[in-house]
Design goal:
disordered N terminus, binds ligand LQESDW3C, alpha/beta, elongated, 8 helices, five-stranded parallel beta sheet, ATP-binding, binds adenosine-5'-triphosphate
Length: 402
Amino acid sequence: MGEAPAFFVDNLQNGFSNGFGLKSKGFETFTDVGDKTFVIGGANSDSTSSVGIQIYDKSTGKWVIPTVLGTKPKTCKGHSAILLNEDRIMISIRGSTLDDCIWFLEVDTEYVKEQKKDFGTEVVAWSKGVTGEAEKPVVISGPSGVGKGTLINMLMKEFPSMFGFSVSHTTRAPRGMEKNGVHYHFIGRNVMENDIKHGKFLEFASVHGNLYGTSIEAVEAVADSGKRCILDIDVQGARSVRASYLDAVFIFICPPSMRELEERLRARGTETEEQILKRLRNAEAEIEQGKSSGIFDYILYNDNLEECYENLMELLGLGGSAPINQKPSSKVIDPPSNYSVSKINNKMVINFETKEVGNEAKNLIILDVSSLKGGAPGRTRGLKIHAIDLFSDGLNGIHELS
Ligand SMILES: Nc1ncnc2c1ncn2[C@@H]1O[C@H](COP(=O)(O)OP(=O)(O)OP(=O)(O)O)[C@@H](O)[C@H]1O
Ligand SMILES: Nc1nc2c(ncn2[C@@H]2O[C@H](COP(=O)(O)O)[C@@H](O)[C@H]2O)c(=O)[nH]1
């Protein structure tokens, strides 16, 4: 059953009056969800670099500026908006490439309802629509000095196209050779606490006196690159991830003995005596929890490094001949400025015309949204995209883009 096309942004011009007595500074769409109208686009006074959002509450006649969670799409020349399942608005961004053209603004999903309770305000959450699935992330945990980083480095070196490291944020100072953005994102405590408050972290914990955390973006960026994400986090963090939306494999690395652990920490020579003692004290509790908490799917003993690495590869399905990572298709489309979006059952049809010398074509892009997974905060995966060329002489071809 077809439905009316969504709002055509092409009719909107800079500075027009939107009928709500609100001064618009750019392209906007209006989507009704219950007794609220979500005005998406333009630029809020506080938002010049990303798409702005305002809500008109018809029951009170008041405007509300919501708390906006998740990574936002950049401002664009226009977009179309269409309501899905009464709880999220699908946005198609004009003039962008396939990997950046579909976004979801969650307005009444379970996640958003939870966040509204926590924030005590109106909340909306962005999620980027992406094609394809990523393999389950791997969470590696264990006491400081057990060899997590060493094992992860071996894995990344041997399979660079298969694994990607989730770069954590921390308030601790960098060690001599550590690079910002590579080993960690080194960040001030106030900034990190503020980002945590705004829902940017999948998990965070106070570890050995400093704050550490995995941002949602760190994990999603690895999945976007088509690689399997590896997280090196402590046991508290692993517990939080276990309780989160992320479906991961959890591996705990155990030292052969406390004495050996102490020797490794001392030999590494990166901590002061006081810090070493603190890490060793924490290690005992971590090992106990690692073995008994039920968080972890597997426990590996790192006595002989080579043997432990072999066992890790075995767990990850890399024993014997390792599979070659499939790179995602890099085909991109760039819908021109004049297009409309309509909804047919679970499929969105983006309709546009192109003119080439001696050839006029009507093109359709069909988005199948029936098998969407995940969502805000982060990415909505499982979008299937087909492009259809309809030349004047009829159907020319259907291309599966994902
Ligand atoms: N099986 C092993 N036998 C001997 N030394 C090892 C073994 N595994 C790792 N090491 C050494 O132990 C030290 C600590 O290893 P690593 O830095 O990888 O630990 P980690 O678990 O990542 O620690 P942290 O949590 O503090 O980052 C390093 O100097 C490393 O070379
Ligand atoms: N909960 C989290 N723990 C993390 C994260 N990143 C690292 N860690 C853990 O901290 C300790 C200490 O690390 P170090 O680099 O200072 O030696 C170690 O156990 C790491 O696993 C994180 O994002 N979240």
